[in-house]
């Protein structure tokens, strides 16, 4: 059937060629036969390839997410335990991070022990020679003496720090004790000095070192810092006067 159709097409072309000087016959597949003045020439015009009716979906890679840089904080200027007192230390602290301190000591146990040894010998309770009871201590000015184990204290730079105290790690309790003496009549005349002498009750201080904990130090959260504490109540004598 196809051969007959082709033969018929050739006959028609030949007949047309005799009556016309220019005839063009297309056979499909890009093949074209052109007759001009009885001469045939063949040309090929490749048909464009059919484009696919769909486009492959592009792969989607979401942008990587990055964690924000950690923010570093510092201890509050005045902790809650010191808001209602004039002291520069706290013996009670409802926000004391005991669990965090224990965990940090266990993680840095060797380095912490070396640091703690530097101040352990300065423990006032063990190193200062003192009477057996506080009632035996007598001074020229009235004062109050006690032994404290602060949980927080204000260092010499005015910053509040967490002090290592009453922390039990591996059956060992880490404590730091300081002896303090506060004048009850600072700035007043010494009551046991004759009135012919000028005298004033004077609060004296001492610099005590404590091991402190810094919860915002990611490498080694312990350090030794200095703290100014009341040490004694002295009587400052002036010149002798006779106006009495």
Molecular structure report:
The protein has 4 helices and 12 strands. It has helices spanning 2-19, 98-107, 109-120, 124-127, and strands at residues 22-28, 31-36, 39-44, 89-90, 143-148, 152-154, 160-163, 167-169, 172-174, 178-183, 197-213, 222-240. The longest helix has 18 residues, at 2-19. A 5-stranded antiparallel sheet has the order 4-6-7-11-12. It starts with a helix and ends with a strand. Residues 10-14, 16-20, 66-72 and 125-138 have low confidence and may be disordered. The chain is of the alpha+beta class and 244 residues long. A hairpin with a 5-residue loop joins strand 6 (152-154) and strand 7 (160-163).
Q: How is the secondary structure organized here?
A:
Layout: H1 2-19, E1 22-28, E2 31-36, E3 39-44, E4 89-90, H2 98-107, H3 109-120, H4 124-127, E5 143-148, E6 152-154, E7 160-163, E8 167-169, E9 172-174, E10 178-183, E11 197-213, E12 222-240
Antiparallel strand pairs: 1-2, 2-3, 4-6, 5-10, 6-7, 7-11, 8-9, 11-12
